[in-house]
Amino acid sequence: MLRFIARRLLQVIPVLFVIITATFFMVRFVPGGPFTAEKAVPPEILRNLEAHYGLDQPLWRQYLNYLGRVVRGDLGPSFKYSNRSVNEIIADKLPVSLELGATALAVALVLGLGLGVLAAVRRNRWPDYLASSVGMLGICVPTFVMGPLLVLFFAIRLGWLNASGWYTLPDRILPALTLGFVYAAYIMRLTRGGMLEVLNQDYIRTARAKGASEVRIVLRHALRGGLLPVVAFLGPGIAGILTGSFVIETIFQIPGLGREFVNSAFNRDYTLVLGTVILYAGLIIGLNLVVDVVQVWLNPKLKFE
Amino acid sequence: MRHLVLTLASLALLASGCTKQDPAAGAASSAASAPKVLRLGNGTEPQELDPQTVAGVPEHRIISALLEGLVMEDPRDLHPIPGQAERWEISPDGLTYTFHLRPNLQWSDGEPLTADDFVQSYRRMLTPSLGSEYSYLLWFVKGAEEYNQGKLTDFRQVGFKAPDARTLVVELKSPTPFLLQIIASHYAWTPVPVKVIARHGPVDQRRNPWTRPGNNVGNGPFRLKEWTPNQKIVVERNPHYWDAAAVKLDRIEFLAIDDIAAEERMFRTGQIHKTNELPLAKIDTYRREHPEVLRIEPYLGVSYYYFNVQRPPFTDKRVRRALALAIDRESLVKNVLRGGQQPAYAVTYPGIAGYQARARLEGGVEEARRLLAEAGYPGGRGFPEVELLYNSSDNVRILAEAMQQMWRTHLGIEIRLVNQEWKVYRDSLRTHNFTLGRAGWIADYVDPHVFLEIWVTNNGNNDGQFSHPEYDRLFQQALVARTTEERYEIYQQMDAILVEECPLVPIYYYTRVYALSPKVLGWHPTLLDNHPYKFLDLAE
Question: Is B218 helix (H, G, I), strand (E, B) or coil?
Fold first, then answer.
């Protein structure tokens, strides 16, 4: 297993290199730059600005300089936020996204697994229909509808919570629910499907024949196998929940990295674009590796190779 | 199991939400001793709080709480009133301004503030390596432009002198009648604590952390207390301010909110006293249900489409005029924009600093058709395909579609709509890679000069490459005019040229639409949407 992990980690290096190179040149070839503004900047001043950030050098040299810095763990200064570095911004914003993601994930797992198991066990009876309807709703209603609706009810109508912001602990509730609900819906459907397949297997029938209690059958014997599709989904899912929360972060004005990631592209904040891309690429690669390991652990039929 | 722990954590979180324990929300409590905290929606996260390296409006709103210039704005009509200088003299030729600073001025760290601090600030602003975007607002001063461009390296030859600690003499290269307006309204002219900046890094380089809380020092009515990126910036009363006793608010919180729908919801739950904007779709609802919080105020800017006059068919001024005359501005404003805007028949904002352009686009659709036929396109026949370039935004698109429709019905010509992402669009305009483009111009200070300087040959913002020798001559002549009346007469001629030559289609003059809590006192509508904070108060 260690050899498997080591080999996979070695593969990360060329992958990241390709991602950095592609992103570096792509952002540079987009029209407009970090200093493109509504009002014209006098050409002399523009030249000074570009010299300050090294943008006056040939592109290949800038690229080599950048690679050199990244290897040393320095993602460079932000163009837009001129007194902050990209490292600082990521250190500032990533924990917020992680906090939101972890809470949403908890909501998703509790709701999704609970309802999924319930639906599978009470197949084609009302708990199943109810759970499936909730799941369908979660998949169909986009977050930008769900979020404002929750705000309308809990913040504006009832006055229990703030409408937006990330100032107090209760401010976490609505965004976590909104983001968690979507993932809960997928997890619910995957759990239900996985469980149904497993519950028809011979080894479950054997367990029943031996007189094991229904609870024991579901939790001890069926769940482990039933979770396989969920785990496969969770790898990219967790990456998505941590990175793809731009909409949620905007609706609720959360100072997370998702918003920074998207806005950096609009701002042509070259270094911030690259920094966030590298981070997200690393996250996705890392999480996929974890998923592979967990899948082998859950499914004895698979082996590390 | 791992997710069990998370589950418990999330349940605890849900439970805690059921009790309301929320200090950030809602209006200040009614206790008499409660601090007065004004909370303002402030748009996007500020880039920086260094007045010499920023260029945006959200930055401006915060900086004007932290720093004060020689003169400041009157809270009602923004005319210059004494700020750090208690009085000033202007030489008869209009070339020398002598400012007399108030006695015992201090920075917010208690250090004395002298005339030399102003000189050092302007020196930093003009240092080429700093790359300040607004340094050109100092170019009216003798030698400033040359120093800023590196052609002059001895700062003693630039027209800033401090003969003693309380006297600042500014020598101009030509009389600039609106200089005090610029100083009052624009942060480019505020002093910065150069000695403090030097403690945190090179003075003449960007990325100096002197603006962070704890490092920041200013001379305004408030000082920086907290800066949580993408959340809020908190300023508190500055006890070292010369007029500290007059400041009524204890704190101001500037909330970074870049989504106007979210901002409107925050206003409704009482998290903020003022929004930065209001979604267009909400205006009618507010008009109907909450007229007491809805504010629609004139804003010193003009929205227009402009032609690339080097590209056919817009090389022909008859075609340009035809397009400018063929639109029904009254209808656009009333039915499409619906934010109380004023239709624009000339470039210069009506009534700006007492100036009203006499020239206006007249003749209507009949004249437009006649001109188009004269130019060789009767009834629009044979008119080449032309693209209108605008930035991707719903509000801008709605206007573009209405314009397209009007040109089609009134002139029989077909304009294709092309939208581009903001920076791509700016880049296309800047490189003259367009035929017809959308733009807007918001004044930095209250003087007609701001609207007329764009159309001078080779002006950095003259993307349509309009060039008219007589116009350029008049512009230079206005800069050396002796009296305001004389200058305004020249501006009349310039406005007349713009109406005659039509390098642009003026469409409407802007308004600011926002929601403001009636609790905020001393808030006056002003043309630049500036509201000097020391005059504001909050009702209990």
Answer: coil
